[in-house]
Write a structure and sequence with these properties.
By secondary structure, the chain is α+β, with helices and mostly antiparallel strands. It is built from 7 helices and 5 strands; from the N terminus they run H-E-H-H-H-H-E-E-E-E-H-H. Strand 4 (155-167) and strand 5 (170-173) form a beta hairpin.
């Protein structure tokens, strides 16, 4: 009798609390008042060991993939541009690591680019007299950055930076810094810069589904 009474009181109390909590939750005011826009700046340091190639550091491109090597960053770059000069997209993709190649393939698919058209455009960029000159070399942890120039005679046609990482099969290009401003600013005089955090840029580019 006593046990049943105690159990009954416990159940009654639990029911009362649940009802009270539910009523309280329904009555709660969850509106928000704007306070202010705040900004938190987190700085990252990029310690880069910077070197410069000697004058006239032109690479000798190879005609066929069987002659390509990947034992040094410069060898991988030679293979990379040899594939471009030949217009061979498959060879070109093999100069990237797996994640980089997948990203490029996805980009080509999204833009509906045809390999034959891409290869033809590369060949036109090189032309008959296009040569690749290496300018600067940077070591950033396990990554290597190389600034190159596509020369047409004595004129700089294109100037950009490649990023490489040593893979089990040798050196390969990587897209790891593709969204990082350091890839474009690493060898400039600008030593401090601020940009939106990647999570902010991604959320801005992708509207909320809510």
């Amino acid at each position: 009798m006593f046990e049943r009474t105690v159990v009954g009181w416990v159940m009654l109390l639990a029911g009362s609390l649940a009802g009270s909590m539910a009523g309280s939750a329904m009555a709660a005011d969850l509106s928000k008042d704007f306070v202010a826009m705040t900004q938190t700046v987190v700085e990252y340091s990029y310690p880069i060991k910077l070197s410069r190639y000697k004058d006239n550091a032109y690479i000798d491109l190879v005609a066929n993939e069987k002659d390509a090597a990947y034992d040094t960053p410069e060898a991988a770059i030679t293979s990379h541009f040899s594939a471009m000069r030949k217009g061979d997209v498959d060879w070109f993709l093999r100069t990237w690591n797996d994640s980089g190649a997948r990203r490029i393939q996805q980009r080509m698919s999204d833009r509906k680019l045809v390999a034959a058209d891409v290869g033809r455009e590369w060949k036109e960029q090189f032309g008959a007299d296009g040569r690749i000159r290496l300018e600067k070399y940077g070591e950033l942890g396990a990554l290597v950055l190389v600034k190159y120039q596509l020369m047409k005679g004595e004129t700089v046609s294109i100037q950009d930076t490649l990023v490489l990482r040593r893979e089990p099969s040798g050196w390969r290009l990587t897209q790891e810094l593709a969204s990082d401003p350091i890839q474009q600013l690493w060898d400039t005089d600008q030593r401090r810069f601020t940009s939106l955090a990647p999570v902010v840029m991604e959320s801005t580019a992708r509207p909320s589904k809510r």
